[in-house]
Amino acid sequence: MSAFPGSWRPRADSSVPLFEQLRLRIVHLVDDGGLPPGQRLPAVRALATELDVAPHTVARAYKELEAASIVETRGRNGTVVLPRDDRQKSLGDAASAYAEAARTSGVSLAEAVRLLTAAYRDQA
């Protein structure tokens, strides 16, 4: 794994939780192509040792990435980066579910976009 983790280490003195720092680092590397689709991520324990963090920190980051369809855990075959098409399909499905919920609740498109924008900003 050429660009990951490299010299990068999570900062214990940051107000951002360690798992979130790791999650954001992986997202950045996936978006920049440093972790291409199909790339296998290090095993949880191996990466925890390398980064000098608890294994549950890495496991939580991987779990969050899997929930966002950025990676997929394949049992004994490890955790791999998913192709963008798979990620976009997952987001498209979530967007369709949100649009349906907003529409059936009587929320206008403008209000639904405003709510989504506010939620998106809250996640940053």
TrEMBL record:
It comes from the Bacteria. One of its GO terms (molecular function) is DNA-binding transcription factor activity. Gene3D superfamilies: Winged helix-like DNA-binding domain superfamily/Winged helix DNA-binding domain. Transmembrane segments: none annotated. The keyword Transcription applies. Keywords: DNA-binding, Transcription, Transcription regulation. CDD domains: WHTH_GntR (cd07377). This is DNA-binding transcriptional regulator YhcF, GntR family.
